[in-house]
Write a structure and sequence with these properties.
The chain is an alpha+beta fold and about 100 residues long. It is built from three helices and three strands. The protein has helices spanning about 5-15, 50-60, 65-75; strands at about 30-35, 45, 85-90. A three-stranded antiparallel sheet has the order 1-3-2. The chain is globular and about 35 Å long. The mean pLDDT is about 85.
């Protein structure tokens, strides 16, 4: 695991999430991209899309080319550049109505 991912995994673990990006009940964690931090304990900066892909793979998630394309499209759709830094804000799947 890349050393820079350790604080992310530690914060997720403190919030009750396993390295596989799901909580103890098995509910998956989801994420949103922003150009800035939402100032939450689960808001992290990634250097670029490849850095985020490496994080997802190191969490044991299968990352197909199709999923990579979808993630890159989501980043671009928000007006962000996948080759530059952006923030990823994690939350429990299904809780995005609260954000």
């Amino acid at each position: 695991m890349k050393e820079s991912f350790k604080p992310v995994f530690d914060a997720l673990a403190q919030a009750g999430y396993k390295e596989k990006l799901e909580n103890e009940a098995g509910s998956p964690i989801d994420f949103k991209f922003t150009p800035y931090s939402l100032n939450t304990k689960l808001s992290f900066r990634f250097d670029n899309a490849d850095d985020f892909f490496e994080f997802l793979q190191s969490s044991g998630n299968e990352l197909t080319e199709e999923k990579k394309s979808l993630i890159q499209a989501a980043i671009v759709e928000l007006g962000l550049n996948p080759a530059e830094y952006f923030w990823v804000n994690f939350y429990e799947a299904g809780k995005d109505q609260e954000m």
